[in-house]
């Protein structure tokens, strides 16, 4: 898995192979998403004009640990299973709009308010590949 260098970029563990080009592009988009905003897996694929939500999800699962992974989300705003508490901490720290869960909801975890939190890539879209 790649790690983040002190300069903020990504580098590979010794002996590891370079990231696939598509993975680099996905991770670049994840790094561009401003704090407090999110993009869906499908949004990222659409912005790149390549792949689909499953391909983006696979890249994030394999290589996303070195980027703000919590900003690439499911389209329904449900928190990433198995990482809910870590993601929730990031969302609260960044001021990401959330909708509180009803008491009837399993786990009573909030979900992302997609209408308010979704970023279209417009503010920093220049220079994307």
TrEMBL record:
Compositionally biased residues, Basic and acidic residues: 100-129
SUPFAM superfamilies associated with the record: Methylated DNA-protein cysteine methyltransferase, C-terminal domain
Region annotation (Disordered) ranges: 99-129
Residue intervals of the Methylated-DNA-[protein]-cysteine S-methyltransferase DNA binding domain: 22-82
InterPro entries in UniProt: ATL_DNA_repair, MethylDNA_cys_MeTrfase_DNA-bd, MethylDNA_cys_MeTrfase_DNAb, WH-like_DNA-bd_sf
Signal peptide range in chain numbering: none
Key words, A-Z: DNA damage
Protein name: Methylated-DNA-[protein]-cysteine S-methyltransferase DNA binding domain-containing protein
Species annotation: Streptomyces lomondensis
């Amino acid at each position: 898995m790649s790690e983040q260098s002190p300069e903020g970029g990504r580098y590979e563990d010794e002996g590891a192979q370079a990231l696939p080009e598509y993975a680099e592009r996905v991770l670049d988009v994840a790094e561009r998403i401003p704090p407090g905003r999110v993009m869906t897996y499908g949004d990222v694929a659409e912005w790149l004009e390549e792949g689909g939500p499953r391909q983006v999800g696979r890249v994030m699962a394999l290589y996303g640990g070195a980027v703000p992974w919590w900003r690439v989300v499911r389209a329904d705003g449900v928190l990433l299973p198995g990482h809910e508490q870590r993601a929730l901490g990031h969302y609260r720290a960044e001021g990401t709009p959330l909708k509180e869960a009803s008491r009837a909801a399993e786990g009573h975890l909030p979900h992302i308010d997609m209408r308010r939190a979704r970023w279209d890539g417009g503010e920093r879209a220049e220079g994307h590949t």
